[in-house]
Design brief:
Blueprint lengths: L2 H29 L18 E9 L5 E4 L5 H17 L6 H10 L5 E11 L5 E14 L2 E2 L3 E3 L28
Antiparallel strand pairs: 1-2, 1-3, 3-4, 4-5, 4-6
Length: 178
């Protein structure tokens, strides 16, 4: 390798080294990825956020029913996988696999809503819900319909006492939101 090519390679690597923290910061801010992942320096600015998941089905009679995510076991396995991927990759991961499993286990529901709360340090330096995503999946026969996503503002919603951030059957913020 010539000295010119070597200098160019070193220059490109140094530029990437100095630009990556800026890119990583934007990924953390915009897409809620885990600041402790992907070799960024944002890990020094925030603790790793936790994810809390709530599952709500709309029955044939029009009633909303919360599903305990810990049972059956096959649902718990799918949720654990989603939880781990969501904590790392943030909004890049959607709960399609979770809803497919819900449709398989509970075929009589006509819509599923998956509420994903990211629990972390809020602007007051207290643990609370810092981001909420609500995914709505209508069921068209035996198929999933087009997903609709909401990102409601969550300024006053706090994590319940004793919350460990894992899948939970408690309603987010003490009430169901639409």
């Amino acid at each position: 390798m010539s000295s010119r090519a070597r200098r160019t390679s070193v220059g490109v690597l140094l530029a990437l080294y100095f630009l990556w923290p800026l890119v990583h910061q934007q990924l953390v801010l915009r897409y809620r990825i885990d600041p402790w992942k992907l070799a960024g320096w944002a890990m020094y600015t925030a603790p790793s956020a936790r994810v809390r998941i709530n599952l709500v089905g709309l029955g044939a009679d029009g009633r909303r029913v919360r599903i305990d995510p810990r049972s059956p076991a096959e649902l718990a396995v799918v949720l654990e996988d989603f939880d781990a991927r969501r904590q790392t990759l943030g909004l890049f991961v959607e709960p399609d696999g979770v809803v497919r499993k819900l449709v398989e286990i509970y075929p009589d529901y006509r819509e599923w809503s998956v509420v994903v709360d990211q629990v972390g340090l809020n602007s007051e330096n207290r643990f609370g819900v810092v981001h909420r995503s609500i995914y709505h999946y209508p069921i068209d026969g035996e198929r999933l319909g087009a997903m609709r996503v909401e990102y409601p503002a969550v300024p006053e919603i706090q994590a319940p006492e004793g919350d460990r951030g894992g899948p939970s059957s408690s309603p987010p913020g003490g009430r169901e939101r639409r």
